Amino acid sequence: MYSLAKLPKGQSALKTALRRSITSKASSAGGVSVIGFENKGPAATSSLTVAVKAGSRFENTPGVAHVLKNFAFKATASASSLRTARETELYGGVLSAGLTREHLYLTAEFLRGDEEHFLSVLTSVLSSSHFHPYELKELVLPVVQAESVAAQSTPATYALDVAHQLAFRKGLGNSLYASPHYPVTIDDVKTFAQGAFSKSNLAVIGSGISTESLSQVVSSAFGSGSSAPGSSGLNTQSTSYYGGEARIPLDIHAPATSTPTLVIAYGQSSKAGPELKVLKHLLGGESSLKWTPGSSPLSQVAEKVPGASAKAFLLPYSDASLFGVVVSAPTSPQLAGLAKEVAQVLKSAGQSVKDEEVKRAVAKATFADASASETLQGLVANVGPALFAGGEVKSESFSGVSASSIQKAASELLKAKPTVVAVGNVNVLPYA
Amino acid sequence: MPSITKMIFGNGPLGPSFAPFIRARPGLQKYWARWSNFYKNAAGYRQKGYLYDDLIVEETPQVQLALKRLSAKQRYDRVFRMRRGLTQSMAHKNLPKEQWIKPEEDVRYLTPLIEQVVAEEAERAEWDYMTVEKIQQKRAEKRNIFSKREGTH
């Protein structure tokens, strides 16, 4: 028998990853919290990300955050959208915008040395976007529509979106995607942007650049920012968990890739602790080896149906979290059978687990946590919320996690009313 | 002020216009304004209830795009004026005098939008046919192959 204790420990790489994230502290540049990560080695690129507290949970009009995301890098006082795009191409950079339920991320990746240009692009987006009505109609809405349609025709994405609506109703429950049922006008976008782009609502994350030099450039760039602190007129309400059930028929004309999907989730109106992160890896569903389903309970269940998958997920937010499993199978009857078994696994989650399994899950969780900050997306997703929460970026400590603490956290979580979303042939799919 | 050639051939869908030339000369503009007003009244479109911008030829991609950028109210009013004007034309009649468009009502609501579209196209063309400075230098050198360079024979 192999056991984890016998394996040589790959500590050094882990330690550097931890050290990197522990030693970085945010500094404040003119009211904007700023953090820079210097990556050692031959990397020749840097990136700047402005995190804005303007996710879908803060919107007053449904879908306005999604529209605002697509309004990034359009005409500003200093350049038209075409000019911004072409100049970026000439510099060899990449501009992108991302939206989560809590944050809007504006990112510029570029060759080292071009900080000044790209910071000015980002600041001009924040301070002087024109928001032309014709841009909304000609450039923004077609993309918004395409993204919404794509999300709707991807059962897993759609089911998770609906699961949020059931779980949290308002605020965090707001859909990430704009909907044709709620038209967004240019005035909605302007008011939302005005509230969102105030200094107190921003944080700047840099990679390949030190915190000191970043805070210098940021304070000079944002120094003249007209946005007064605390002027944010955004919809901030605390989150409570409700739960419920939704059954959505899958369009029979849907492409073959959209397979019937079931989401079973439990939420709580408090931050996710390390126990839940470990629990996610304990239930698993994702194999760490090729050509084998792995030994986690969920993948063992999913293995019985060819082409099926059952994956545990944890979506952490600043004041709530949603934990659950996404199950999908090629056909609805197969999914119905699978879902019952997955529900059993989820109900008994965290009970009678062996120490060995916990150790394995802790190691997986630690690795996932550390390796997430190696990519820009993961780094931003980790650091952005931390900056708004207090400014210090720490990596999660899993030292206190034991079999009993997981059991306690799991039983606490499973007390709540479940959120179940079934997408597929609702005639066949089971009820909650 | 653009060049004369540009004013005649380069004004896009708005057609040839010497307006920039005249506007640059206040004395001439003052004189020309009388002719301009005379022409506008004599042309008879105000008596039929049109604005000047209703008469711009709309069968070009630029004007079509500009028309799409009108606000809903502007678009409605434009169609209303056209229908009313068409009815008057068919009856060979002018509107009653109190319904004639007054000079201060004759606003250029479409021209700025067309200019905007044209400027955008020009910007795109500029970026599409942009040359990097090094290539420009090379071209300049190529043109001068027969002229003697300094330091060579």
UniProtKB/TrEMBL annotation, chain A:
Q: Which residues form the Peptidase M16 N-terminal domain?
A: 38-177
Family label:
Belongs to the peptidase M16 family. UQCRC2/QCR2 subfamily.
Q: What is its main location?
A: mitochondrion
Q: Which organism is it from?
A: Kwoniella dendrophila CBS 6074
Topologically, how does it sit relative to the membrane? Peripheral membrane protein
Out of the domains of life, which is the source?
Eukaryota
**Alphabetic keyword roster:** Electron transport, Membrane, Mitochondrion, Mitochondrion inner membrane, Respiratory chain, Transit peptide, Transport
Q: Which GO terms describe its molecular function?
A: metal ion binding
> Where's the Peptidase M16 C-terminal domain?
184-363
As for subcellular location, the record says: Mitochondrion inner membrane
Q: Which InterPro entries match?
A: Metalloenz_LuxS/M16, MPP/UQCRC_Complex, Pept_M16_N, Peptidase_M16_C
Xref: SUPFAM superfamilies: LuxS/MPP-like metallohydrolase (SSF63411)
The keyword Transit peptide is annotated on this UniProt entry: yes
Please give an example of a GO cellular component term from this record.
mitochondrial inner membrane
**Protein name from the UniProt record:** Cytochrome b-c1 complex subunit 2, mitochondrial
UniProtKB/TrEMBL annotation, chain B:
- GO annotation, biological process: mitochondrial electron transport, ubiquinol to cytochrome c
Supply the InterPro entries for this chain: QCR7, QCR7_sf
Task: Give the main localization category.
Answer: mitochondrion
Q: Where in the cell is it found?
A: Mitochondrion inner membrane
The cross-references to Pfam families, in alphabetical order and at most eight, read: UCR_14kD
Going by the UniProt record, its keywords in alphabetical order are:
Electron transport, Membrane, Mitochondrion, Mitochondrion inner membrane, Respiratory chain, Transport
What is one term from the GO cellular component aspect held by the record? mitochondrial inner membrane
Query: Membrane topology per the record?
Result: Peripheral membrane protein
Q: Which Gene3D superfamilies match?
A: Cytochrome b-c1 complex subunit 7
Q: Say which domain of life the source belongs to.
A: Eukaryota
Q: Which PANTHER family match?
A: CYTOCHROME B-C1 COMPLEX SUBUNIT 7, UBIQUINOL-CYTOCHROME C REDUCTASE COMPLEX 14 KD PROTEIN
Family named by the database record: Belongs to the UQCRB/QCR7 family.
Q: What is this protein called?
A: Complex III subunit 7
The source organism is: Kwoniella dendrophila CBS 6074
